[in-house]
Structures are given as C-alpha cells and as structure tokens.
Amino acid sequence: MELVEGKVAFITGGARGLGRAMALRFAGEGADVAIFDICRDVPGLGYTMSDRAQLDEVAGQVRALGRRAVTLVGDVRRAEDMQRAVEQTLSDLGKIDIVVANAGVSSVGDAWELTQEEWDAVIGVNLTGAWITAKFTIPHLIARRQGRLIFISSGAGLGGRSKLAHYCASKWGVIGMTKSLAIDLAPYRITVNAVCPASILSGLNTGMARHMGIPVEQLVGEWMKLQLIQEMIQPEDLAAAVVWIASDEARYVTGHALPVTAGASM
Ligand SMILES: NC(=O)c1ccc[n+]([C@@H]2O[C@H](COP(=O)([O-])OP(=O)(O)OC[C@H]3O[C@@H](n4cnc5c(N)ncnc54)[C@H](O)[C@@H]3O)[C@@H](O)[C@H]2O)c1
After folding, report:
1. What's the number of CA atoms in the CB half-sphere (13 Å) around residue 227?
2. Does residue 19 have its Cβ closer than 6 Å to ligand 1?
3. Residues 147 and 168: beta-carbon distance below 8 Å
4. How close is the Cα of 112 to the center of ligand 1, in Å?
5. From CA 205, how far away is CA 107, in angstroms rounded?
6. What is the pTM of this model?
7. Disulfide: which of 13, 68, 121, 266 matches 19 by Cβ 3.0-4.6 Å?
8. Does residue 220 contact residue 227 with C-beta atoms inside 8 Å?
9. Taking the CA of residue 152 as centre, how many other CA atoms within 13 Å lie in the half-sphere pointing to its CB?
10. What domains lie within the chain, and their CATH numbers?
C-alpha cells in the first residue's frame, strides 16, 4: 500500500527545489499532483524564480510515474490566481486531499537595511501567500470533512537567525497560523502541521549566494554549523517527512511544527 494512494496533492512553489521533490514523492506514493508556481521573478529579490519549462518538467516526471499532473501558473499573493488554480484543480483532478503551502522566498540582510519592497516580498509570499493558499483550499477540505494542510516553515521559524529578521518573522508567523488552524479545523478531521527544514541546497540558497557574490557552500555552511549532524539535508529528506504527515498514518498528528533540521533547532 502506497502512503497517499488515490489522493490529490496541491503544492505551491512546486516547479523546483523542495516543492519539486515533494511532487515527485507524492506521485511515487500514489497521488495525483497539482503544481502551482509563479514562473516569473518576484520584484525586490536578487535571484530568479522558476520558469515555465521547470514547471512542465516536474509535471512530466509526475506523469512518468503514472500519476496525473496539473500545472498552474500564478502568484500565491494574488487571491484571484489562487481561486482560479483551485477551481482548475477540482475540475481536472476532481478533489483536493492534501495542501502544501511551500512557495517561499528570502533575502539576507540587516533588518534596518532592508528595503520596504524586500520586506513586503518576503512577508507577502511566505506569510500572506500561505494564508491565501489556506483560504481558498480549506472550504473544499471542510466540505469533504477530511484533509491535510501542511505549511513549509523553517528552522528559522523555531529560532532566531542572523540577518534573517524578515524571513524569521514570516516563518514564525506560519507556525502561529498552523497552531490556530489546527484548533479550528480539528472538528472537520483536517490536520494542520508545519514542517521546518534546515538549510537544503535549492534555487533559494544558490540564488541568494549568487546575488551576495559568495559560494553557496559558504552560505549554507554557516547555517549547517547549527546542525548536530553535520550532513547536508536533501530535498528528498524533507519530502519524506511531508508525505508521512500527509498520510493516514499521521491522522492524529496535528498542530505540530516538525523540524527536519538534523538537530539545528534543539
Ligand atoms: N532550501 C532551504 O534551505 C530551506 C530551508 C528552510 C525552509 N525553506 C522553505 O522551503 C520552501 C521551498 O524553498 P526552496 O528552497 O525549494 O526554494 P526555491 O527557490 O528553490 O523554490 C521556491 C519555489 O517557489 C516559487 N515561488 C516563489 N514565489 C512564488 C509566488 N509568489 N507564487 C508562487 N510560487 C512562487 C519559485 O518560483 C520556486 O519554484 C520555502 O517556503 C522556503 O522558505 C527552504
């Protein structure tokens, strides 16, 4: 028996990085996947987001695993984009069982040097975007009186991080939303959890390092010093935790923020 056989997973920011690994793992465990991504850059940040070709590549991989895939282009900050994406998913895949609010962005800098545009981009995508994702998918989960809502927070949502005040604020905010929604959605048998990765090589870290003019190994190396196990966590490690939380095996796990940090959040 596969972990999420016959389910439909809706994943934001799924065209690359952790979202891509989750989409492939969900498909490998028997789920159809709706993959939502912006496919254009976010003003105020110094690195590029995914493009249409990357989104299509993930969908192709999902189909190669024998599952259905829907590609959805939109911005998690825009309610109309999310509403359209949810409607298209319901029309193409029939339902949504699992929602993963994964789309996220960052920059690195002292809080007092950030531009307003930078602050708004990070809070807008990571926190407001997670709320918009929840807002338009929850009514469907409630109607079916079941579901899994999973927010991708961060080790930076469990502690402070130098030069990441804006990112930490967004990721702590996501955990507050997780715990509140877990209370409100329990009567409908919907679990709500956050998963908190430590530093993992992805478009986010490589893009930020390029923008800062330093090797990505230097950037993630600083954060890796916090880990008790000094090994690079892979996107697939995060995907494994997310798929388990989405599975029936985790039906009584709700309101948690699960660190996948090799001990960095102790
Ligand atoms: N990589 C890490 O080290 C790390 C650590 C902790 C938490 N996280 C979190 O994991 C999540 C995934 O990050 P990643 O490392 O895979 O980054 P990534 O940059 O590789 O992927 C993020 C994806 O989100 C998309 N996206 C960005 N803004 C969007 C928007 N407004 N609307 C829709 N899609 C948008 C991008 O195009 C991209 O495909 C994020 O929430 C991030 O904060 C990552």
Report:
1. 18
2. yes
3. no
4. 24
5. 9
6. 0.98
7. 13
8. no
9. 28
10. 8-251 (3.40.50.720)
Per the annotation, the verdict on 167 as an active-site residue is yes
Q: Does ligand 1 lie within 6 Å of residue 86's CB atom?
A: no
Could you tell me the distance, in angstroms and rounded to a whole number, from the CA of residue 222 to the centre of ligand 1? 19
Measured on CA atoms in the order 64, 68, 72, 76, is the torsion positive or negative? negative
Provide the CA 256 distance to its chain's centre, in angstroms.
15
Q: Which H or E run includes 101?
A: strand 98-101
Q: Catalytic pick from 47, 167, 188, 252?
A: 167
pLDDT tens for the chain, 266 residues long, are 799 999 999 999 999 999 999 999 999 999 999 999 999 999 999 999 999 999 999 999 999 999 999 999 999 999 999 999 999 999 999 999 999 999 999 999 999 999 999 999 999 999 999 999 999 999 999 999 999 999 999 999 999 999 999 999 999 999 999 999 999 999 999 999 999 999 999 999 999 999 889 999 898 888 899 999 999 999 999 999 999 999 999 999 999 999 999 999 88
d(CA 198, CA 184): 28
Cβ neighbors of 62 (< 8 A, separation 6 or more) are 23, 24, 27, 32, 33, 35, 68, 69
For the chain, helix, strand, coil in percent to 5 are 50, 15, 35
